[in-house]
Request: fold
Amino acid sequence: DKIPFFGGTYFPPVDRFRMPSFQKVLAAIVESWQTRRDELMNSANEVLSEMRGVSNLEISPDELNFEQTDAAFTDFVKYFDKINGGFGGAPEFPPPTALEFLLRYWKRTGNENALEMVRKTCEQMAHGGIYDQLGGGFHRYSTDASWLVPHFEKMLYDNAQLARIYLHLFQATKDEFYKRIAVETLEYVRREMLDESGGFYSAQDADSEGVEGKFFVWTAQEIEEVLGTEEAQVFNNYYDVSEAGNFEESNILNVKNSVPETPEKSRKILFEEREKRINPFRGGKVLTAWNGLMLATFAQAGAILNSDEYLQIAKRNADFIIENMQSDGFLLRTWKDGKAKLNGYLEDYANFADGLTELFQVSGEVKYLVEAKRLADLMISEFWDEPSGGFYFTAKNHEKLLIRSKDFYDNATPSGNSVAADVLLKLAKITGEANYEKLAETILRLVLPQARRYPQGFGRVLSALEFYLAMTKEIVILGEKGNDLEREIWSNYLPNKVVVLAETNENAKIIPLLENRKPIGGKPTAYVCENFVCRKPNTSLEDLRGQLFLV
Reply:
């Protein structure tokens, strides 16, 4: 009868870190089914009841206000690890949605503690073994609290979200260190995870030659043989390499000791040497939801770093999904070896619509906004729960399931409802469609009681709440692409904004913000608006900074 009676999140192939192997779990299930079936049936009914209850949230009667984000911030302070960064103990997972909320909170309140929590966590992660010090990119999680020993698998969604937070930290602080980590991560993705067709692969394995981490670790002797004694000594001192090792008699590279100069030349030499090893297996599967996350990051990187190469990667990715991962206008979930299949879930629609919205804001190409809006409308018609509010995880055209559930929890990836609320709020500001904002507000009210109890599980929705409550600025820049006014916008961390780039106002029917807007004196011109009421148009950087409160 397909009722679940037991569950878990991960069962390794062999016993590890107090986790039973999958084989042991299966044997225990067989034994229990044969000897204690009545107990399992009772358990099944309890599990089914809980599963139904999780999706049956009630809309909070409370007004949405900044007291709720203030309370969330207080909770983050309570659980912050002042030594290692992050919010908890081992195993330590990167918390990108929480970090993004804290960065937005700092921007609004000026609370330096919020910024310091983000900086501390990002510095510790980037210096730790969870970060690939030679090849760039982040591993899945750290088995310890100090970010040293990772589970060596690399996931697309981690690197999409983490690269974005480092980009935003660079905008906020102008610190080149964060830019370097963002660029190295994006370059890893471009090198290892980008299919020639434009799609991003999902994951790279932890194992090579049957041994977890073998590709990534070094002995002191191996390094000395490659670099020579003198250079190896400098490198090993910087990257915590010893004869004894810090991981199973080998060394996971991590930044332990500061030196006047980073041994950059040695890094490149060792990276090239490492490329001669047998690489971990990389799956050829492309998932729409995770591609949407990376699409948004490459689009933003194109603008923040003024990189046309990154912008082109984003555009190729968007075009690939539009052309190859749809059927009769509906999104498909997965693509591999030239074939796409499976109906898209809520997170596929929400993340891809969000990526397209970011790409529109960066490129000014209206076709991406039109597609984002079409998918948002389809998401509403196919996934929205009209009586109770919120989006179901599956669409109306999915196969019949035991429960048509809703997901609100921001875990390793943000929940579909969180991203949907976020993108609907942005589309409301760009298109002027009030219904988008109404639906987003309903989601925020549904999630609020849970977010109060456990803010760490709702970072993306808390960021959306900050956006909803803020005096969001709608910024229109008319003029040739790449002008100084546009560069000023993307050079600063301005999370509570939407941007429309255009050379003329010809698309005013689609984008009301363009109505009656014209360049002044043939120069690039900025219109800074709030709730579609615009201030005096300006052509100077000084005036623009004043209207954006940057001076």
About this structure: The mean pLDDT is 94. Residues 434-453 form the longest helix (20 residues). The chain has 19 helices and 14 strands.
